[in-house]
Design brief:
two-stranded antiparallel sheet; seven-stranded antiparallel beta sheet; Pnp Oxidase, Chain A; alpha+beta; 166 residues; 39% strand; globular; 5 helices; 20% helix
Amino acid sequence: MFKSADINSYSNVFGEIGERWMLLTVKAGNRVNAMTASWGGLGIMWGLPAAFVFIRPQRYTHELLKYTDKFTASFYPEEMRKVLNHCGTVSGRDSDKIAETGLTPVHGENGFVYFEQAEQVLCLKKLYVQRMNVTCATDSEIFDKHYPNNDYHYMYVAKIEEYLTK
């Protein structure tokens, strides 16, 4: 017999991404940027372990992801909340968020960049990018609520190349 249960009891993904947030980090050329995200998920796509992340078009991270297929999603202890908040509200175009927050970059062997302070890191390879479209929405009220300026997120589907943990 089935019974209803809290989805968080099934998987920690919902708590990690939705509540604790994640830091998306991309390196393109000599530029590195990190932005906080709380929309996304993990699953299987095209038979591969995959991450799904959503980035607004005005974000610097979206701009940098045009030049590389590698990025990371990393997760931090609660005491890093102020750092994550800063990385989610300040643009890397205008400031050096990494220096301002005291994050310590790690340049992995496979070209992935993440931070020493992370507890868990997903090394991701971009496979698919598509801008969300209100004409595809089956509940337009959600789009009305989250996109009053029509700045629809880009959805990134990425293969999980490696999972790192301390």
